């Protein structure tokens, strides 16, 4: 037996370990080498109190290819598009412009209930649409008619939708300018602001799961980026690594609210890095810059399964809609500057003229021809009957449920009782 007065072997070992730990604790520790281990961000520790200032970083630059006179700034950035392609760009932009003018006047004459023009933003439509694949899925807001036009949506169907006649793919159920085309992969536009942003994120995640060579593009204005739906869409698309292009048209105004009253940061592109998205700011009045940026974003979105944010800087020359009077919140001189000095159509025309691809005679002939084409579609739409009222109740459920059927029967009883007050002869039987 061990003596009670003699230390045990266990005691010696414990003492040795304690001494070793004490030795380690006494070694100097350099706190400057310590790295943060928090899982939520990658950063360094600092030992001085300093808040991050929003204006420390200079503004995100604006990528452009052409100057205002149509001159290529850097030859390496020229997309080298064929004459036929560039002429198609120009003709689609000007055709959209002509359609806008006729339908705007149609609303002012009481022929249709509502309209929204695309004046000044034609370059964002055509440049981006041309860089996409026809199978790519488009979520528009309400000012992307040029995207649909570039994809081949006929004038007859534009007119039919605005007139809500029997040829309308939406069967007369939507407000004017709420276009949609399943065949052209263009999701029907809805009125509530920014709802398409999280919807596009979900669609892009589905595209990713299908493992197809396809992307989703989502258009919205800088005003829509102030909605909570924008946060949800940005965050989901980045964390789920979706092949999605967010295309923001920053046209200076959200209806009557200028950008300096909408946000304090550096535009919309500056938000991309905060969500983990690659971002770029482009000159939206330069159709080639928009084309290059969208084409590269599409290529990388497919190859890398990640979202991209494009902020196209442009200007809304027209009123927000036929319900708006923009002279109440901005000057005529401001509008005239963008209309006369920095317009996407005139810039592309300068480019074509410098190469001998377009002349004054070409312009005169095309303007006359395009107006004639639009007017023919306009007159045809105006003469068509309205959809059968019974279509109000179809396509809600696969099979009509009793409550909906009851509503339909109630409508017909009402129409029969008060038919002198309803122009039923204007509707299809």
Short note summarizing the structure:
By secondary structure, the protein is an alpha/beta fold. It has helices at 9-26, 83-108, 122-130, 145-150, 155-163, 196-210, 228-239, 259-262, 272-275, 287-304, 332-340, 344-354, 360-383, 402-417, and strands spanning 137-139, 186-187, 216-221, 244-250, 253-254, 257-258, 278-283, 308-313. It is built from 14 helices and 8 strands.
List keywords for this structure.
429 residues, alpha/beta, Rossmann fold, 2 domains, 6-stranded parallel beta sheet, two-stranded antiparallel sheet
Strand and helix layout:
Elements: H1 9-26, H2 83-108, H3 122-130, E1 137-139, H4 145-150, H5 155-163, E2 186-187, H6 196-210, E3 216-221, H7 228-239, E4 244-250, E5 253-254, E6 257-258, H8 259-262, H9 272-275, E7 278-283, H10 287-304, E8 308-313, H11 332-340, H12 344-354, H13 360-383, H14 402-417
Parallel strand pairs: 1-2, 1-3, 3-4, 4-8, 7-8
Antiparallel strand pairs: 5-6
Helix pairs in contact: 2-3, 2-12, 2-13, 3-10, 5-13, 6-7
Keywords: Metal-binding, Mitochondrion, Oxidoreductase, Potassium, Thiamine pyrophosphate, Transit peptide
Protein name: 2-oxoisovalerate dehydrogenase subunit alpha
GO biological process, one term: branched-chain amino acid catabolic process
- Percent helix among the residues? 40-55%
Q: What percentage of the residues does DSSP assign to strands (E)? A: 5-15%
Please give the order of strands in the largest beta sheet.
2-1-3-4-8-7
Q: Helices and strands: which structural class? A: alpha/beta
Total of domains: 2
Instruction: Give the tally of β-strands.
Output: 8
Global shape = globular
Low-confidence stretches: 14-20
- CATH-derived topology of the largest domain: Rossmann fold
N to C succession of SSEs: HHHEHHEHEHEEEHHEHEHHHH
Q: Please give the radius of gyration in angstroms.
A: 30 Å
- CATH architecture descriptor of the largest domain: 3-Layer(aba) Sandwich
CATH superfamily of the largest domain: Thiamin diphosphate (ThDP)-binding fold, Pyr/PP domains
* Number of helices, counting only DSSP H or I runs of 4 residues or more: 14
Described by strand count, sense and barrel closure, the largest sheet is: 6 strands, parallel
Overall pLDDT score: 92
């Amino acid at each position: 037996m061990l003596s009670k007065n003699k230390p045990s072997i266990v005691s010696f070992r414990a003492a040795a370990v304690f001494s070793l730990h004490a030795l380690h604790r006494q070694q100097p520790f350099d706190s400057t080498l310590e790295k943060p281990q928090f899982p939520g961000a990658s950063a360094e520790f600092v030992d001085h109190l300093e808040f991050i200032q929003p204006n420390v970083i200079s503004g995100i630059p604006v990528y452009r290819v052409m100057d205002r006179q149509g001159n290529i700034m850097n030859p390496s950035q020229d997309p080298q598009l064929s004459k036929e392609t560039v002429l198609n760009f120009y003709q689609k932009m000007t055709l959209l412009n002509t359609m806008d003018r006729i339908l705007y006047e149609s609303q002012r004459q009481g022929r249709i209930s509502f309209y929204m023009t695309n004046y000044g933003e034609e370059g964002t439509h055509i440049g981006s649409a041309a860089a996409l694949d026809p199978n790519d899925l488009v979520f528009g807001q309400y000012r992307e008619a040029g995207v649909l036009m570039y994809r081949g949506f006929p004038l007859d169907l534009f007119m039919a939708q605005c007139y809500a006649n029997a040829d309308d793919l939406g069967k007369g159920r939507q407000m004017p300018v709420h276009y949609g085309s399943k065949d052209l992969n263009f999701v029907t536009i809805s009125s509530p602001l920014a709802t398409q942003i999280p919807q596009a994120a979900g669609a892009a995640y589905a595209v990713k799961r299908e493992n197809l060579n396809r992307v989703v593009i989502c258009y919205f204005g800088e005003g829509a980026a102030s909605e909570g739906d924008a946060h949800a869409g940005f965050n989901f698309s980045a964390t789920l690594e979706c092949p999605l292009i967010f295309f923001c048209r920053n046209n200076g105004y959200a209806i009557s609210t200028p950008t300096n009253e909408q946000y304090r940061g550096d535009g919309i592109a500056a938000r991309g890095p905060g969500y983990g998205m690659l971002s770029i700011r482009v000159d939206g009045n330069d159709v080639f810059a928009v084309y290059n940026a969208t084409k590269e974003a599409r290529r990388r979105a497919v190859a890398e399964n990640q979202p991209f944010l494009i902020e196209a800087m442009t200007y809304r020359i027209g009123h927000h809609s036929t319900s708006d009077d923009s002279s109440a919140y901005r000057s005529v001189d401001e509008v005239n500057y963008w209309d006369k000095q920095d317009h996407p159509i005139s810039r592309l025309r300068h480019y074509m003229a410098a190469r001998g691809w377009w002349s004054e005679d070409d312009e005169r002939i095309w303007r006359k021809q395009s107006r004639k084409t639009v007017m023919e579609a306009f007159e045809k739409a105006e003469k068509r009957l309205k959809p059968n009222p019974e279509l109000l109740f179809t396509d809600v459920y696969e099979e009509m449920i009793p409550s909906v059927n009851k509503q339909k029967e109630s409508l017909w009883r009402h129409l029969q009782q008060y038919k002198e007050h309803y122009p039923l002869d204007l509707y299809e039987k």
